[in-house]
């Protein structure tokens, strides 16, 4: 099959042909970074082009005709390799998470009061909007608040700090040319906030979200802790029980170790169990720093 027949924009087809990618077979072994370099496009756009090419190849060879909806192990490995992630703004935490919070997965984050769950939720709602050219996803966020802990003033602070850090993280980019388009107000306008006060409201909202969110859904759940009793002893554990824990792809537990905050990967099908220190600062979630102290409560 020729590249000229792919359901891509004329500009994309032209760039592919000009770079020597004239058939689907010529795209089958190229990586997204290499394609992005050859076509002078973003890596995100290259991934989308390869996805279209892969889907067209499947229709031709009929590899999915026997079992509807089947997926090869190669496809799964390819998707995992190029899975997009949301940075947490903490390098050590991103490192144990493979680059950040994974898209197309459900990640549960839990811990004791004051450990920084809401702060991390706000940070992710801001960071998902970082432009693709600056290593982000250029997305938007839906924030569902069940306890009234969302603070719009805090979101403004985190957004300001996020914008300030961009030219330092990507100094080769022409930041000034885009600065006027990246104001804290723009970040706030892309966070859709829902305050639910009852089980009925929550179910109604969840049923509506499928129409509201189109694709590349990344679900992050902030959970509280509860006391679990067992044969005369007790321990702190995340709420909602074992059945609920199996519904999440990844589970991250936030805890105190002395005066420092730590995040621990308790469950993940693709990540090793590991811990990383982080801190909550005026700018949001950042690398652990000795000046960020708090009395241990766990």
Automatic annotation (TrEMBL):
GO cellular component: nucleus
Cellular location(s): Nucleus
One Pfam family recorded for the sequence: Rad51
Ranges for domain RecA family profile: 82-298
Record keyword Nucleus present: yes
Gene Ontology biological-process annotations: DNA repair
Source domain of life: Eukaryota
Listed PROSITE patterns: RECA_2
A single GO molecular function term of this UniProt record: ATP binding
Listed name of the protein: DNA repair protein RAD51 homolog 3
